[in-house]
Amino acid sequence: MSALAGVMLGVAPTFYILFSDQFDVSVMITVVYFVTMHACFVLLGMLNLARAMAHKLPLF
């Protein structure tokens, strides 16, 4: 799951920057995407850690 999160944080913004016409806008959108997705992945990891500590199966 961590590998998938790393790919999503790295590949999607790179493609957006490479194939966008306006560089400034694409960098701004990439930063917003990275911060938002990173926060979502951290919160999902914290949720699964709490579930693992409660001896429950993780959510995928």
Please, could you describe this protein's structure?
- Keywords: Membrane, Transmembrane, Transmembrane helix.
- The chain crosses the membrane at residues 30-50.
- The protein has 60 residues and is an all-alpha fold.
- The chain has one domain (2-53).
- It has helices at residues 2-18, 23-53.
- The protein is elongated, with a radius of gyration of 15 Å.
- It starts with a helix and ends in a 7-residue tail after the last helix.
- The relative contact order is 0.11.
Question: Strand count, sense and closure of the main sheet?
Answer: none
Strand content: under 5%
Low-confidence stretches: none
Report helical residue fraction.
over 70%
Overall tally of domains = 1
Which class best fits the helix and strand makeup? mainly alpha
Listing every helix as H and every strand as E from the N terminus to the C terminus, the arrangement reads HH
Return Rg in Å. 15 Å
Gross morphology is elongated
